[in-house]
Amino acid sequence: MKNSSLILMTLGCITLGSIIGASATLTLVKASPVESKQEVIAEPQGSCSAKTVSEDILSIKNVPLKENDLPLDTQDALHQVRSQSLESEEQILKELALRIVLSKTSVKPSTPLSNIPSLKSLLPVPKISSDELRAFYEKNKASLPPNVSFDQVKGQMENYIAQQKTIQVAQQKIQELEDQKAFKVNLKTPVAPLIEIDTSSYPFKGPKDAPHTLIGVSDYMCPHCRSVKPQIEELLKKHPDKIKYVQINFPLDIKGLSGILIQGSICAQKESMEAFWKYHAKAYEISFEALKPVSPNQRKEFINQAMTIAQNVGLDLPKFKACIDKPEVQKQVQKTLESLTDIGISATPTFYLDNRKLIPSQQGLITSVEQKL
User: Fold this and answer.
1) Which of 114, 181, 267, 280 is the most exposed place for a label (fewest CB within 10 A)?
2) Strand pairing partners for 59?
3) All residues at 6 or more sequence positions from 284 whose CB lies less than 8 Å from its CB, including other chains
4) 294/300 Cα distance (integer angstroms)
5) Residue 17 pLDDT > 50
6) Among 133, 202, 223, 221, which Cα is nearest to 352's?
7) Which domains does the chain have, with CATH numbers?
8) What is the CA 35 to chain-centroid distance, rounded?
9) HEC states along the chain?
10) Measured between alpha carbons, how far is residue 332 from residues 8, 190, 322, 347 in Å?
């Protein structure tokens, strides 16, 4: 591999993707003169909506199958692909709307748009100072191939930093247009498959008869689960009467610390719902270093970690110790793992709102839930 290619990879020098020079075929169906309060409504020729149950999606030996005939894990996989595609399509159309506004292109219903300048040409050229280049070089120098000087990579660094600044400016301007309601992207949101999870045995917060049920599937040693936990708490504070939150612990490593901590959560719940939530909060605080046991008896060390949590939150230690490694507790964790895997869950955190998978948007879990309340 040439040094230049390796340097680009090291710097993370990516193309600007759809931000620069992207285009999409669409029909603009409504527009006012291009001003700060212009509204451009984009109606794409295709959409990412889910298939309806009346449509045949697959045929096996001439036997047609509808989408709701498919296994839930397959329905879930299709939904995830469609949701990811939707995000990409939305970004492409938002960037086109920005190009139209910045170029002051005349928009007419059912008239194809042509000769719109590229977004790169419409945005200001970022200025990169020598100090900025030098600081970037020093920050990344250790990752570069040996003996690569500042002057050798100066041009590549300048291009990379300029690209990043251009992306930031574009996203900021798109957000400004969205705040002004200057455009609207009319893509249909894919509908998640309806699933059934028996939540009667799992701990919950909020009213039993709340109009909405949010299920959170998480693992105590999952960093992303830890980062979203404050959002869950804030959401429940904002909507104390609207949401019943059900916690389901899903072990990413059932034989490791994850599995043991979840066994401990079951034992805490046997003591009381209050005991569970105390244990639950503390389990999220355990150090990631605990994943690397120092003693030959790893299982015993993991159990001791759970025992320490139980002690710190004031649980009945003799009962907890007698419970945590019982075969029936292990089987309960295994049963949860298998039942959730069957409906397509393979990662955490995963959320379901009113029995449909909820994929949080870039705005976060709270906004995503509130949009559907």
Assistant:
1) 114
2) 64
3) 220, 225, 226, 229
4) 11
5) no
6) 202
7) 3-185 (no CATH), 204-370 (3.40.30.10)
8) 35
9) CCHHHHHHHHHCCCCCHHHCCCCCCEEEEEECCCCCCCCEEEEECCCCCCCCCCCEEEEECCEEEEHHHCCHHHHHHHHHHHHHHHHHHHHHHHHHHHHHHHHCCCCCCCCCCCCCCCHHHHCCCCCCCHHHHHHHHHHHHHHCCCCCCHHHHHHHHHHHHHHHHHHHHHHHHHHHHHHCCCEEECCCCCCCCECCCCCCCCCEECCCCCCEEEEEEECCCCHHHHHHHHHHHHHHHHCCCCEEEEEEECCCCCCCHHHHHHHHHHHHHHHCHHHHHHHHHHHCCCCHHHHCCCCCCHHHHHHHHHHHHHHHCCCCHHHHHHHHCCHHHHHHHHHHHHHHHHCCCCCCCEEEECCEEECCECCEHHHHHHCCC
10) 49, 33, 16, 19
Residue 302 near residue 293, CB atoms below 8 Å: yes
pLDDT digits (tens, 9 = 90+) for 236-257: 999 999 999 999 999 999 999 9
**Average of pLDDT values for 262-285?**
97
> Global pTM?
0.64
How far separated are the first and last CA of the chain, in Å rounded? 53
DSSP lists the bridge partners of residue 39 as none
Average predicted confidence (pLDDT) for the chain:
84
The angle formed by the CA atoms of residues 15, 19 and 25, to the nearest 5 degrees, is: 120
The C-alpha atoms of residue 259 and residue 334 are separated, in whole angstroms, by 9
Mean pLDDT of 256-277: 96
